[in-house]
Design brief:
The complex is a heterodimer of chains A (387) and B (330).
Chain A (H helix, E strand, L loop, with lengths): L33 H4 L4 H26 L13 H10 L5 E3 L5 H7 L4 H8 L25 H15 L14 E6 L6 H13 L3 E7 L2 E2 L2 E2 H4 L5 H6 L4 E5 L3 H16 L5 E6 L18 H8 L3 H11 L4 H23 L19 H27 L1
Helix pairs in contact in A: 2-3, 2-4, 2-12, 2-13, 3-4, 3-10, 6-7
Chain B lengths: L6 E5 H15 L3 E5 L15 H5 L4 E3 L4 H13 L3 E5 L10 H14 L9 E6 L14 H5 L5 E3 L4 H13 L4 E6 L6 E5 L11 E4 L4 E5 L3 H14 L4 E5 L2 E3 L3 H11 L2 E8 L4 H12 L9 E5 L10 H4 L3 H12 L2
Helix pairs in contact in B: 1-6, 3-4, 7-11, 8-9
Classes of the chains: A alpha/beta (387), B alpha/beta (330).
The structure holds thiamine diphosphate (TPP) and magnesium ion (MG).
Keywords (chain A): Oxidoreductase, Pyruvate, Thiamine pyrophosphate
InterPro entries (chain A): Alpha-ketoacid_DH_E1_comp (IPR050771), DH_E1 (IPR001017), THDP-binding (IPR029061)
Cofactor (chain A): thiamine diphosphate
Chain lengths: 387, 330
């Protein structure tokens, strides 16, 4: 199908600080965000690179675990580390984060034990970490129903607004919320409704859209004839498009918009142009719907490669990179070891936490279940006795 | 794909694919809609090859929006099309719930019959595949509760082939529940004549002591239970429901008049379920034939658990036989 009339292309260039070759650029498009970039020092640059590499190794370890039957499924983040690490580092500890299901790097930056993600995909829990435990960086649970979390984030941000922790002028206590979702998700009613509520209540919120060009086998052109960031504009939400494989742009642009949100200037939308280098999940076969040359074009824009080139250009020596490889290898091995050690949950957790208060019918079922399960143990034991 | 043989041994996934293809060939108003159903052929490959053969206007890779899929299917039906919508997984039907229950289900009634709404909604459903949350559910009761929708579920490749075509031929909306764990086992498809009507329940195995009924993937569990029971001298009659709305009570009543005992099995949670409806109705209508209360074996009234616990949650042959023992103890 071809569009009736091509949409006029009057969009500014996506905000970028680092070219794919790792060169720092300053131009009209990124000028507004330069002050935020300038808050970073050499240690920050290394930290960003470090977190991207750690996630890449983690992702690879989990892909292998899935191939070996140790995880039911894996959802690769390969290629999207720049968008995720940059935006995540822009959030402050008091901010709240609503991920979709591919935001492993965000989870890492916010401090969750990534084993939780492996546990979720091993099929031993629907959860993986406790978002209400302060050590988990206000990182909410993964949401698998596409787009649902956008409304939750907006509601949460409405609460922050009502609680008076927005726009007080105290940058260390004012809060904001950030929600992650994909290009496919923008077609869901829930996401549009989140835009409506966010604009209407002027929530302290950043919508962080990772446009990785694909929703399983469906290209972004099926979801939208206009660049997706313009969706926000139509709802009255300031919106900007960035080079999502540039971790520095991801940081600087998100930092500004989260600052705006905390200061009470309302919601905004960031569309990060990126690419899902791997399969949608380990169940997917991307060769069925996209060509090698497309993938190769994006591999050439890899977020880690360009950050590495940038670090080297600033004199970071080989030692840093070899140490990091060792650290990341150990990290992945540790995840692997602990994943293999994850036991199946006890069967009676089926009945736990369905309600927060006793429920007569369910409690009776749980009792029946316990007796039923025990009847096997009894017969197994008596069977042994007979031998 | 030519069918040279009258009878082929194929998986249900392939049988439904061939049924859809036949429907596309038979009626140019039939169109398929859904997420990833075109180039990819659907995540279960049920529409494999159909986009290549029939093109963009017959096989639509839609935007990612279930309400959009069902809502536009309704409009297409108003325009004379017969849309067949694929929902990617059971748990993802709910963004389309409003369009299904408040619109599609009620439109024939609202239009006072001046227009029909021949929309089919295909839903891969049920457990046994070890998948993450929202990918193993059995949501049929929500829809059985909505007047205006017909609900069916094939359990064999043969039924997959024929029932999808019968569903598409129906002038009413039909929810077509595909037991995804049964997509791959092979079975014989007879391409010459359908076995029975769309809304007919069938005896899958005859027996004399206890009647057990179920649908979809449960039927193979019941057959397994019946085989185990036979070794112990109990003769179980298995009924494959095939239709969930309307329910076809006559074959169940007939069987229960013979056996005097009934166990209803389902993967879905018990509370307000299709199985509960069957149990209540048989209790009302076969009271004097029953030697024991009608028992239900269901998923528990808890969310479908993480994959590693699915075999404790899903009724298996042992759980069915436990209930069989209980009805026999009266
Ligand atoms: C409501 C709903 N419908 C369908 C699905 C199945 N599904 C899982 S991921 C996906 C594609 C999502 O694409 P996008 O939003 O671009 O995110 P990405 O996977 O590319 O990160 C689909 C259709 C789902 N999870 N939820
Ligand atoms: Mg995407």
């Amino acid at each position: 199908m071809s569009p009736a009339t091509p949409v006029p292309q009057s969009d500014p260039a996506p905000v970028q600080f680092l070219t794919p070759a790792g060169e720092l650029v300053e131009d009209a498009a990124n000028e507004e965000y330069l002050p935020y970039l300038n808050t970073l020092d050499e240690a920050d640059y290394q930290r960003f690179h470090h977190d991207m590499v750690m996630t890449r190794y983690f992702d690879e370890a989990c892909t292998n675990l899935q191939r070996q039957g140790q995880l039911g499924l894996w959802v690769p983040s390969h290629g999207q580390e720049g968008a995720q690490v940059g935006s995540a580092h822009a959030a402050k500890p008091q901010d709240h984060i609503f991920p979709s299901y591919r935001e492993h790097a965000v989870g890492l930056v916010r401090g969750i034990d990534l084993l939780g993600i492996a546990a979720l995909l091993r099929g031993v829990t629907h959860s993986g970490w406790d978002p209400n435990d302060p050590k988990n960086g206000n990182f909410r649970l993964y949401t698998l129903v596409i787009g649902s979390q956008a409304l939750h984030a907006t509601g949460y941000a409405m609460g922050q607004q009502f609680d008076g922790v927005v726009g007080t002028g105290s940058p260390e206590t004012d809060e904001a919320t950030m929600v992650y979702f994909g290009d496919g998700a923008t077609s869901q009613g829930d996401v549009s409704e989140a835009f409506v509520f966010a604009a209407s209540y002027q929530t302290p919120q950043v919508f962080f859209l990772q446009n990785n060009q694909w929703a399983i086998s469906v290209p972004v052109s099926r979801q939208s004839r206009t660049p997706l960031y313009r969706r926000g504009t139509g709802f009255g939400i300031p919106s900007v498009q960035i080079d999502g494989n540039d971790v520095l742009a991801g940081f600087a642009v998100t930092a500004k918009h989260l600052d705006d949100a905390r200061a009470g200037r309302g919601p905004s939308l960031i569309e990060a142009l990126t690419y899902r280098i791997g399969a949608h999940t380990t169940s997917d076969d991307p060769t069925k719907y996209r060509g090698d040359s497309e993938v190769a074009g994006w591999v050439a824009r890899d977020p880690i490669t360009r950050m590495e080139a940038f670090l080297r250009s600033r004199g970071v020596g080989e030692r840093y990179f070899t140490d990091l490889t060792t650290e990341a290898t150990d990290f992945a091995a540790d995840i692997r070891r602990r994943t293999l050690a994850l036991d199946n949950p006890p069967t009676d957790v089926i009945f736990d936490y369905v309600y927060s208060e006793p429920h007569a019918v369910l409690d009776a079922q749980a009792e029946w279940f316990a007796r039923y399960e025990n009847s096997f143990e009894d017969s197994a034991e008596s069977g042994q006795g007979n031998n | 794909m030519a069918q040279n043989d009258d009878i082929q041994n194929i998986p249900m996934a392939r049988a439904i694919n061939l049924g859809l293809r036949q429907a596309l060939l038979d009626n140019e108003k039939v169109i398929l809609m859904g997420e990833d159903i075109g180039t990819l052929g659907g995540v279960f490959r049920i529409t494999e090859g159909l986009h290549a053969e029939f093109g963009d206007k017959r096989v639509l890779d839609t935007p990612l929006a279930e309400s959009g899929i069902i809502g536009t299917a309704i409009g297409l039906a108003m325009r004379g099309y017969r849309p067949v919508c694929e929902i990617q997984f059971d748990g993802f039907i709910f963004p389309g719930f409003d369009q299904i229950t408040s619109q599609l289900a009620k439109l024939t009634n609202r239009y006072l019959g001046s227009q029909t709404f021949p929309v089919v909604i295909r839903v891969p459903y049920g457990g046994h595949i070890g998948a993450v949350e929202h990918h193993q559910e059995s949501p049929e009761a929500y829809f059985a509760h909505s007047a205006g929708l017909r609900l069916v579920s094939p359990s064999t490749p043969n039924d997959g082939y024929w029932m999808i075509q019968e569903a598409i031929a129906s002038n009413d909306p039909v929810m077509f529940f595909e037991p995804k764990s049964r997509y791959w086992p092979k079975g014989e498809v007879d391409f010459r004549v359908p076995v029975a009507g769309l809304h007919t329940s069938l005896v899958a195995r005859t027996g004399t002591d206890v009647t057990v009924v179920g649908h979809g993937a449960m039927v193979s569990v019941l057959m397994q239970a019946a085989a185990l029971a036979e070794e112990e001298g109990t003769s179980i009659e298995v009924i494959d429901l095939r239709t969930l709305s309307p329910l076809d009570y006559d074959p169940i009543l007939e069987s229960v008049r013979k056996t005097g005992r009934l166990v209803v099995a389902q993967e879905a949670p018990e509370n307000a379920s299709v199985g509960s409806q069957i149990a209540a109705t048989i209790g009302e209508r076969a009271f004097y034939s029953l030697e024991a209360p009608v028992l239900r074996v269901s998923g528990y009234d808890a969310p479908f658990p993480p994959a590693k616990l699915e075999s404790q949650y899903l009724p298996d042959a042992d759980r069915v036989l436990e209930a069989v023992d209980r009805v026999l103890s009266y």
